[in-house]
Every structure is written in structure tokens, then in C-alpha cells.
Amino acid sequence: MAAAADRDDAAPALLRWGDDAVAIADLAATAARHGRPLAEIPYAIRVLIENLERHRRAGHPGVVTGADVAAAVAWDRHRDRGLPLHVERVILPDSSGLPVLLDLAALRDAVAARGGDPGRVEPVVPVDLVVDHSLQVDRAGAPDAMIANMRREYERNGERYRFLKWASGAFTSLRVFPPGTGIIHQVNLEFVAEVVRRRRHGDTVWAVPDFVIGGDSHTPMVNGIGVLGWGVGGIDAESAMLGAAYVLPCPEVVGVRLAGTRRPGVTTTDLALAVTERLRREKVVAAIVEYGGEAVDALTIPERATIANMAPEYGATAGYFPIDARTIDYLALTRPGRDLAGLVDAYARRNGLFREPGAAVPRYGRVIEIDIGAVGAAVAGPRRPQDRLELPAVAGDFARRLATPLAEGGFAKAATTAETAAGTGGAGTDETITDGTVVLAAVTSCTNTSNPAVMLAAGLLARKARARGLTVPARVKTSLAPGSRVVTRYLERAGLLPDLEALGFHVIGYGCTTCGGKSGPLDPRVAAAIERDGPVAVAVLSGNRNFEGRIHRLVRANYIMSPPLVIAYALAGRIDRDLSREPIGQDADGRPVMLADIWPSADEIAAVMPHALDPDLFAAAYGGERPADPLWDDLAAPTGDRYGWDPASTYLIRPPFFDEEPPPLADRLDGVRVLGLFGDSLTTDHISPGGEIPADSPAGIYLRGQGIAPRDFNTYVARRCNHHVMARATFANLRIKNLLLPEREGWFTRHHPTGETVTFFEAASRYLAAGTPTVVLAGREYGTGSSRDWAAKGSALLGLRAVIAESYERIHRANLVGMGIVPLAFRDGEGWATLGLTGRETLTIDGLRAGVRTGAPVTVTARDGDRTVTFTVTAQVLTESERRQIEGGGILAMMVRDVSAAPPRATSA
């Protein structure tokens, strides 16, 4: 009766567009019904209101109620309420998508074993998977690099790709974009996203805002064209794919007003780094950031996407740019013949989602003003994307960090290293490795390779450097990984690709590569010099992440910058050269070449920009459902509704998460031991690394025990469908700093009962065998970085029952909840250090059930010998849905129960 009473029997409003008429959830009428003018409501919240109102009326009446709609309309007064949203689609990279599909395959087996219909395990929304996280830069700086890397990619990943082809046949809602298509977010921006979609509910076709969640934290890049979306963990994606509501706590919405005019020579990357630095300082974690101001009108869609892409780096759920005239023009450019631009224009204007210049400013929780005219050329590093440095400060900051202790962000070098011969020259030449030597230079990552302005600028800088006779030192590994094939085509048309290639920046393939830790091997002489003498070597990349240990295991300093600056620093060969006033190098006549001499002007960039603005480029790159790929098309794959597991496989092993019913949430945990003790900003890269697998790591030792040679280890990303590897990979970043062992880095911890130093995996195994519960203690911003559900899955496999931290990043907190691990937060102003904890204590945690159910304080008593410390923490479990997940043993266990109990599928007559 409640569902019937909540249903609106009135016919929905209609949008007439051309000869078509589609139903819409009228936002102005909905807002008025709940006592608020639409103009006051942020555009991103309007998208959420539409989703709730439509599903209340037609999609999921009874699941979504009028009270939910009312809460969204008054979002700023209902911050503790969860909104039951239903996404329109899910997009996944192979890195998180393969484990998601593996879970669904195992879920089909589990449902069948319980007597249920395995066919019920089927996505109910469209799912796109883009294979872009597996490509490694094995070969670089050569014309055949792309072909060689693609062949090696298929050699390494053939089994995984055959599974993907099986999945694309077994799950009717799944579309797979094969290797070589492009980076997921650029494919989403240029092709997949529709901004407004047609959706059928019953017999009625509705026009609806495109609303997406993705298995990659940089999904907000699509916010740049007015599509609301954000990154989630794979376990959240699985649940949404199967039709469950994605419950979002009513978010804070922060208005960011961009004002002023950019200075000449300042790139969008510089602007994005400045925004990241400022918003991280403003603490917008878990907020939706919505951009406005007169400077937004001047930003192109790729420039907006560059800023939106960095949302995870400033901690926001999304970085939303509302639909406007530039959105419509971009759709016409990138999707010729798809008849989208007109529908989007008509719908957005009719339903209050179109932002006109000078329109009334919505009500925001707070407004942050950023003057883009004050932004200068900059880089971010050497370890975090929010650590921005104006160009003149880079060299001095690096020099200062050399002798600074690790705990203070330095490199703890006693003195600079002596020159070490490497490359083509000898000691004393420009081919030496010292502190500050650049050994990796990569134009890569979705952040920048979607943006023609910076990509063309890189090509023009390369042309001007080449004309002056500059070359890149042989010790620098150079690579160019465009975001899509469109980029390669416009660089070719502009005649700039040969200039890039002349400096060693050959296209090496289409994928995340260096930014995701797939930088491949260094020259053996360079690697040997670094391993022997330990200089602080440097990578420069146009990426979005530079966490320590991520880019390359031998490179300790990593700097994010614009593509043209990557070329410039590659030419200079050093990070400790002040490019604002020191020469990059000398030309053939011995004259100094300054950065200003080769930096392209705005007019030069504008002259070649038309090459990137041709609809034929996009039609050629994305013709049909997907581009043809003989390597992919010729790959043999199994068929059938259920996957046939190979017991000899070391890549695809049926995950254990559906095998046993998890125990109920305990109210009290006694004898708890601290598995790890960490400071601030422990990233998901630290918890679950994604790059190469060191031979002496726990995962490497396991793989060698399986008879696998180190050459064939592949990466942690590629091994994510083997839980034996991933359990051993947890807390196994080679640069992780566990303060239980402050004297060393890496995958080690202290086993308290014996006092031994062992690996995290070994310690966890001993605690599990003894029935000892474990926790992690940490500082602020626990779980920053990638939406890596294996950081939570691996923690669960190690037996963690809770994490106690000062604060959490949004995605990882949700992932912990999804795996049944309770995220607990210290009281404001407290932390393990202020409480005097050392991690050696034995803990008692009391009141967990009430803490999860009602938010009541949870009491922790820590004892170490005669010393006792008692303090309270709060469970960071934010919605009723999350409370059910924790009490039900995690979302995966709930899925087994829910799908097994569902009736069989209806069959057609």
C-alpha cells in the first residue's frame, strides 16, 4: 500500500523534439511541489532529483519514496540521509572490471549451488568495459614501439582477454572496447557518454540525464560535458549493475567560481594543479564541486574535463560543469550522425539543466573563488598531486628534500651521490645518473591527453626544440601514450608527430601506462646505476598520480606537469634546473636555449587547432559500435552462461568471497592486535599496489613458487583475478612506511606475540590461525587515490576487522564497508600519536553494534604492560544501506543471498 500511495498517477510531462515526444520528470514542478524554486538548487543536485523522482514514479516505486525526493530537494538540510539512486550505466577499466566480472561469474556458480537461477546474475543497466590498464611500455623511443607493445600485451594477457570475450557473450548488457581503443575516460568523453539518454520504464520512453558510476576514480572527467558521474569500488559497481540502489549520503555541494583571464603561456594543466592544491586545502572530501563563474565560459570541453579529471586528487566526489552551449558544440563535433546534440539541447533547456551565462547562481553550502589570472606555470611533486610548485621553486624544493628525513617528505640522503656512468656516455658527461637526473619522461594519462591545446603545444615545442638542434639524453626513457586514436590523427594532420618522434616520443600504444605504474623497464645500464649507487632519479609525466612507488620502483621523485613541460624537462635531463631562468640546453652553435625560446605562443597553437576540430576524426576513430581489431577479433574464447574455471590457471581463480557465510558483526572484539601503524595520506597504492611485482615481494615469492619466471609475473593489475597474489600484495608497496618498523620501508610488519619482523601476509596468516582479530591504525586521509576495491578486499582476506583512522577518503571508506570492515574514526583533535599509542598495544573494542546502528561512541581500550589508554571512536557508516552491509557481512555476501532468493527469469513465449 505504501508503494501505491507514493506513486504519482498523473501522466508525466512530455518533451516534444522534432517528430518525437518523450516523457520527462519535470524538475521545476518537482522542486515547487517540495517548496523550493529550482533556481536555488545546484545543477548536480537537479540530476539527483530527476533520478529519484523518475524512479519514484516509474522505475522503482516503493524503493524510492516521496520522502527521498524531498530530501534531495532540501539536500542541504538532510546531510545524514541516504539517497537511493539508480544509475543509468556503469563504465569499467579492465583493472577493476575484470575482478567485477570474475565476481559475477563466481556469483553465478554460488547461486546455482544454492538451487537458484544463475541467469539472474545479469547486469540490468548497460556496462562498458575499456581495456586500457594492461599496456606496459616494454619498448619505447622506436617506430615499432606500438606494435611491439601490443603483441607483448596479448602474450601476457591472452587468458584474461579470452575471459573478457566470454563475458561479453555471457552478459548481454556488456560491451567491451578492446586494447588499443584508448583510455577509458577519453573514450567515455568522446564516444560513450550521451549526456541525455532515452530510457524505457514499462511502456514509456523517458529522456533522462546520463548518470554513470565507474570503476576508476577518474570517472569525474566526464563531468566536463555535464554528465554526472564518479568513481566507486568494484563491489559498489557490481551491486549497481545487478539493479540495487546506489545509496549516496546527501552531499555537500561546494560552488567554485573561476574568475579572471589566464596569463599567456599558462596551460590547462597548470590551472588544474592550482585548483587541486586549493581545493585539497579547502577540504572538499566527499563533496560535489560545481564550477561556475565567467572564466568557465571561456574553457573548452577538454579543458573542463582536465579540471574535472582531478576531482579524486582534490578529494571531491565530482567536479561538475553544467551543460551549456559548449557541451552542445562538443557533442556535434565528436558524435557526428548520432543526432544527440539537438536532444541534449532541447532537454537541458526544457528541464532546467542548461546553464546560461549570467544565470542566477544556485545556493551552495560554501563558495570558493579562484582567480585563474593568478596561476602560473607549475608542476606537482615529488610524491602527491596536490603538492604544487611554481616553476621557479622546483629545483630548490628538490635540493631541500634530498637531506630531509623521510617522515618529513624528504629522501633522507646523507649527501648527493657521485656521478655514475650510464647511457651512452661516461663519467662526467651529460649521460650520467645523479640526484635529480630525469630517467623517465612520459606524455600519458587521461588528464591531459584528452586536451588538444596541450598536446598540440607539446608537438610545437618539440618542433621548435628540434629546429634548435636540441636532443633528449639517451638515459631518458621517452613515451607518448595518447588517450585515443583521435589524438594521433590530429598530431599527424598538424605535421607534429614527426617532431615528437625525433625527440623519442613515439606512440607506444593507447593506455594508462606510466601514470598507472606500467612504465616498463629502464635501460639496463640506467637501472644498474640506480640500484648500485642509489641516486634519487626522477620521472616527469603528464599524469594525475605520482604517489611514491607507483611510477617505477627505481624512481623516487615523480613530477606531474603539462605535456609541453614533460618535453622540456626531458630535453633538460634534470629536475634541479630552474627552467624559468636557466637554459634547457645549447643549440648547435653553442648558444643557450631558454624555455621561453621554444614555448609555443597562443597564436601558434590556434593556427594548428583546426586539425583537432574535424568531426571526421571522431567518425573514423569510433565508427560503428567499436573499431575493428584483428588481434582481438581472432582471439578464441569459451562460450556458455557459466565460466569453465581452469584449475591450473594462475590468472583467473574463482574468488573465495562467495564460499562461506561471514560471521555476524561482533559487538566486542578482545585481544585485538595492530597489523600496521601509518601516518597521514596512506593511499590505496600503498595498500594494494598496481605496478610491477618485485621478485622478492610476497607475491613475487608466491609466483616463483608456482614455477613462473619474473619476466612473466606481469603486474599486480594483471594478477587481480588471483586472490592468492592479491592477499600477498596487500600492504606490499615497496615504499609503504609502517611505523611499527620505522627504520625500513616495504611489506614488513611486526608480529607482536613473537616480536619478529615478518611480511604483512605472514603476520596476518599467523593471527588468523590463532583466531586473533586485527586492525590498522592510521592518520588523516586514509585510502586516498584510486578506487581500488582490492585495497579493501585484500584487507578482508588478511582478516582486518576494523580500521581506526583520523579521516577517510570517500571511495575507500565505502569499499571497507562493502567488505564488512568497520571504518572507525578518532574524535576530532585525537589520533594514535596524540593518544600516545605505539601499535604494540593489545586492544579491546566494545560497542560495535550500537556504533554501527546508531552512531553511538565505540570504546577502545589499549593495554601495553602496565599502561592503559581508553578512548572513543565513531563508526563511519553513513546510511541505512551501509549499516545493512556491515551487519550482513559485506555487500558480496548480501548479493549471494538476494540473488539466490530471487525468482527465476521469465522466459519469452
TrEMBL record:
Pathway: Carbohydrate metabolism; tricarboxylic acid cycle; isocitrate from oxaloacetate: step 2/2. Its EC number is 4.2.1.3. It catalyses: citrate = D-threo-isocitrate. SUPFAM superfamilies: Aconitase iron-sulfur domain, LeuD/IlvD-like. Residues 75-573 form the Aconitase/3-isopropylmalate dehydratase large subunit alpha/beta/alpha domain. The keyword Coiled coil does not apply. Residues 701-827 form the Aconitase A/isopropylmalate dehydratase small subunit swivel domain. GO terms for molecular function: aconitate hydratase activity. It is an enzyme of class 4 (lyase). Catalyzes the isomerization of citrate to isocitrate via cis-aconitate. Belongs to the aconitase/IPM isomerase family. This is Aconitate hydratase.
